[in-house]
Amino acid sequence: MINQSLYILVVEDQLSIAQNIATFMEDKGHVLDFATQGDEGLKLALTNHYDLVILDLNLPVMDGLDICKQLRQQASHHIPIIMLTARDSINDKIAGFTIGTDDYLTKPFSLEELEVRCFALSRRHLLQTNDILTFDQLLIDRKRQQVTRAGKNIELHSMCYHILAILAEAYPQVVSRSKLSHKLWGDEPTESDSLRSHIYQLRKLLDKPFDYPMIKNIHGIGFVLDVKNSG
């Protein structure tokens, strides 16, 4: 289960949509600011440090594309943006991605999917900018390729470290066996038991000495990093 509060700016001029987002997201513990006009949204985004912006495409005064363009030009850091749009044409999406939109969600959308997209986008942003990844007791220093758990150094050989890094970067998503194998060995064939052997070694070092296992096998699907406290 994901346990993380996000600080989100919602720029949406349709009151019913904004209220639905507010009710759902605030009940989940997220903190939201709101703007109904494009210029107001741009000002808030430039003066506050949000985890991400949920941005409607069609807005009064300044539309979503203009806001996105201005944010990419003026902001001192990258602000993840999910664009909400009633349009579903590929040209609209290309225009948005070209000027820096990170993700699109077409109206009508489910609030559950919106939250999942927000988590995925904020997590991806952290993974792109942070050298040190933290998952409860687990710390992964990507720059030094060092791993600690509960303050204890974990000596992993190269293959085990790469498996752990792949699972950490995919968190909270499950990584299939085929995808994991492809990331480790590419298109080169390998023995069928090689992955199983490396996973066993990783679990022996990362999980066995501690109070709960973090490498979880989802039967018939793949592997996922199991984090008891990710908030």
Could you characterize what this model shows?
The chain is elongated. Strand 6 and strand 7 form a beta hairpin. It has a 5-stranded parallel sheet with strand order 2-1-3-4-5, with helices on both faces. Strands 6-7-8-9 form a 4-stranded antiparallel sheet, covered by helices on one side. Helix 2 packs parallel to helix 3 and helix 6 packs across helix 8. The relative contact order is 0.11. It has 2 domains: 123 residues, Rossmann fold (3-Layer(aba) Sandwich), CATH 3.40.50.2300; 94 residues, Arc Repressor Mutant, subunit A (Orthogonal Bundle), CATH 1.10.10.10. The chain has 231 residues and is an alpha/beta fold. The chain is 42% helix and 21% strand. The chain has 8 helices and 12 strands.
